[in-house]
Amino acid sequence: MNRSAMLTRKLRIALLFPALALAACGGSGTSAPDEKPPLAGSSIGGPFTLTGEDGKPVHWSDFDGRYRIVYFGYTYCPDVCPLDVQTMVKGLKLFAEDHPDLASQVQPIFISIDPARDTPDAIRQFTHAFSDKLVGLTGTPEQVAAAAKAFAVYYARGESQPGGGYLMDHSRGAYLMGKDGAAIALVPVDKDAPAVAAELARWVR
Predict the structure, then answer these.
(1) Which of 22, 75, 88, 120 is the most exposed place for a label (fewest CB within 10 A)?
(2) Minimal CA–CA distance to 116: which of 82, 153, 142?
(3) CB 139 within 8 A of CB 113
(4) What are phi and psi of 80, to 5 degrees?
(5) Can you give the pLDDT at residue 163?
(6) What is the reported pTM?
(7) pLDDT value at residue 162
(8) CATH fit for domain 12-29+37-203, picks 3.40.30.10, 3.40.640.10, 3.30.70.100, 3.40.50.740
(9) pLDDT under 70 in the chain at which residues?
(10) CB neighbours of 100 closer than 8 A, spacing ≥ 6?
């Protein structure tokens, strides 16, 4: 596989939930106490078992009691995934500057949709390039498929690349999940770090 060749190509992103993505990008600031989160009552999210960076099983329930930002992508992504993850991490850091106690309750999670290549070691190298707080998860094809289905994430193997390798097509979005694991809102990682921080300030309480 020629990873350098892959980094020169643009990833074709399939937006599975364009309406939700637009809704998540509009808000900023703190929400009213009685304001209903945009994803409240949705079926997004649910139990899964995956593999952590140390090769040990990780369960969705392991994060109970913490807010979670969940992003699905892959480490060989040439552009969109690393940009989104960087924005997510920077936004969380900005949020922490003003709300350190609340930010400490937020766990960012990166879940691979390319288990054939994303071994625990590859995941570890990827996540640690952005933040030691970022948790990376992979798994068997069946485990990844189950997690993606729970979060309504589309993915499929895409174009083969000259010299070997391939791209992955996948839906783009980062979910903010509550302490109970329920969906709250989409985090606007497609915008910028201040927008991410504003969305976190709106819902993390």
Answers:
(1) 22
(2) 142
(3) no
(4) -65, -50
(5) 81
(6) 0.84
(7) 85
(8) 3.40.30.10
(9) 1-33
(10) none
Sheet with strand 67-73: strands edge to edge: 135-137, 106-112, 67-73, 174-177, 183-187
3-state secondary structure the chain: CCHHHHCCCCCCCCCCCHHHHHHHCCCCCCCCCCCCCCCCCCCCCCCCEEECCCCCEEEHHHHCCCEEEEEEECCCCCCHHHHHHHHHHHHHHHHHHHCHHHHCCEEEEEEECCCCCCCHHHHHHHHHCCCCCCEEEECCHHHHHHHHHHCCCCEEEEEECCCCCEEEEECCCEEEECCCCCEEEEECCCCCHHHHHHHHHHHCC
Nearest to residue 193, comparing CAs of 73, 76, 108? 108
Q: Which of 93, 161, 158 is nearest to 132 (CA)?
A: 93
- How many residues make up the chain in this entry? 205
Place of tokens 């068997």: 140
pLDDT tens-digit map of 91-131:
999 999 999 999 999 999 999 999 999 999 999 999 999 99
Task: Give the whole-angstrom CA distance, residue 41 versus residue 195.
Answer: 24
Specify the amino acid at residue 52: G
Residue pair 127/139 in contact (Cβ under 8 Å)? The answer is no
